Amino acid sequence: MAESENSLPDEHPLAVGWAAYAPLTGAVFNAHGESVLTPEQFAVLQRDGLPALDLAVLSARPVGTPDEEAPPPVGTAVWFTRWQVDEVRLDVGVGDEVDWRLTPMDLPWLTRLFGARRTVDLQLDFYAEALGDEQQYSLVAGAVVEVEVVRCPMHLSTDPAEGVGWVPVPGQAWTTRLDRTKDLPDTNTENVYGFIVHVRED
């Protein structure tokens, strides 16, 4: 029986599933001009055969990094969570004038990151009003005089009390200075948990 026009020669087998990834970078073509991936390319896309990311190593605190590059400036410290900065593209930098309604800081979370080493009383929470709870607001207006990014080493936890998966190592957070919240360097950012912005009030 003659080979069907649509059948493939033995030297160009098509493995089920590869073609679904053909539009992605690295696509190759079979004898009939249909785009497929090689088994090796498919394995890479599925992350098979690749070493698992060791976030404990990637998030480790660099040797010699001080708790702070200098004492915090005089002013009101305000916390931003990382995900809020990412989600609303909040770009705040030194010299900016701000006028914010702030809510009390989540102190247990701050203590989990820093232990007793840092104090921040207020946070910018874009979703506080949506929660429908009674909120206490503090009005802060002035110039931004410092921006700190907060990083913390991570470890793989199986304890439901602290969260299962990669979580911050309690009490081990540290900060470094940035000109703006958007200025994170092109390095691993999995261990960035937030920002502390200092405002000198008018």
Major sheet size, sense and barrel closure:
5 strands, mixed, barrel
Helix and strand sequence? EEHHEHEHEEEEEE
Helical content, roughly?
Answer: 10-25%
- The main sheet orders its strands as 3-5-4-6-10
* Distance between the first and last residues' Cα: 88 Å
- Would you tell me the overall average pLDDT? 78
Helix/strand structural class: alpha+beta
Unreliably modeled segments = 2-25
Strand percentage lies at: 25-35%
Rg from alpha-carbon coordinates:
25 Å
Provide the domain count: 2
Got a strand count? 10
Explained architecture:
Helix content is 13%, strand content 28%. With 202 residues, the protein is of the alpha+beta class. The protein has 2 domains: 1-50, no CATH class; 55-201, no CATH class. Strand 1 (28-29) and strand 2 (35-36) form a beta hairpin.
Topology:
Elements: E1 28-29, E2 35-36, H1 39-45, H2 55-58, E3 76-81, H3 82-88, E4 97-104, H4 107-114, E5 122-123, E6 138-151, E7 154-157, E8 165-168, E9 174-178, E10 192-201
Parallel strand pairs: 3-5
Antiparallel strand pairs: 1-2, 3-10, 4-5, 4-6, 6-9, 6-10, 7-8
Question: In a few lines, what is going on in this structure?
Answer:
It contains four helices and ten strands; from the N terminus they run E-E-H-H-E-H-E-H-E-E-E-E-E-E. The protein is an alpha+beta fold and 202 residues long.
Defining traits:
4 helices; 2 domains; 202 residues; five-stranded mixed barrel; 10 strands; alpha+beta; two-stranded antiparallel ribbon; disordered N terminus; 28% strand
